[in-house]
Write a structure and sequence with these properties.
The protein is α/β, with parallel strands linked by helices and 203 residues long. 34% of the residues lie in helices and 19% in strands. Strands 3-2-4-1-5-6 form a 6-stranded mixed β-sheet, with helices on both faces. The chain is globular and about 55 Å long.
Length: 203
């Protein structure tokens, strides 16, 4: 009987970027001082990982490089882990959008597939590239514990894949700044059994 392997993916959202809360998407703002502090506090001095994989956007990559250098860990930048592109909403706040159309965010939250921002990356296409990145993570880091530093949308999509959440419902998942979501994948030959683990901090 094949030996079961456990792959642990700790998905960490970046901290607060310069400019605060907005539909940032692929706009490449760096971390604010508060954002750096949030991520440092979330990780502390723990280092249970064998590798770090990061989105190349500054709000993820800068901290990933610092953490990898501090602990001597291999670091991969994966372009597929960039945030969902929000099209015409890029760089705009919720208040700015609702000032123009009070119902625009209500429609989006009810059905982000049917009411996507103008010019936004389609959610189905976004799901496709995130699933490609997910499969690569499981292939390259089988049996290891890996820290993945990415964005709320990326984390939502990976959790949705594990739990079978339909695309229109993914924005019901709230991902806090510098929050960490742990996914555990048991592999028994070609059979994979992914699970979402709830926890407080890195153990």
């Amino acid at each position: 009987m094949p030996h079961k392997l456990i792959t642990t993916l700790d998905l960490m959202r970046h901290g607060e970027p310069v400019g605060g809360r907005k539909y940032r998407g692929q706009q490449d703002d760096p971390l604010s001082e508060k954002g750096w502090a949030q991520m440092c506090q979330a990780v502390g001095d723990h280092c249970p990982w064998q590798a770090i994989v990061s989105s190349p956007l500054l709000r993820c990559a800068d901290f990933a490089r610092e953490l990898a250098a501090r602990h001597g860990l291999p670091l991969d930048m994966d372009d597929r882990l960039v945030e969902l592109g929000f099209g015409a909403w890029e760089g705009r706040t919720a208040d700015e959008l609702t000032a123009e159309d009070p119902e625009v965010l209500v429609r989006f939250r009810r059905d982000p597939v049917a009411h996507a921002p103008p010019g936004a990356e389609p959610l189905a296409r976004f799901r496709g590239r995130i699933l490609e990145a997910w499969n690569t993570l499981l292939e390259r880091h089988r049996g290891k514990q890996v820290l993945v530093i990415a964005h709320a949308g990326v984390i939502r999509m990976m959790v949705a894949q594990v739990l079978g959440i339909p695309l229109p419902y993914i924005f019901r998942l709230q991902v806090p700044s510098a929050g960490i979501t742990r996914l555990r994948v048991e592999s028994d030959g070609d059979d994979l059994f992914p699970q979402l683990l709830f926890h407080a901090g890195i153990l």
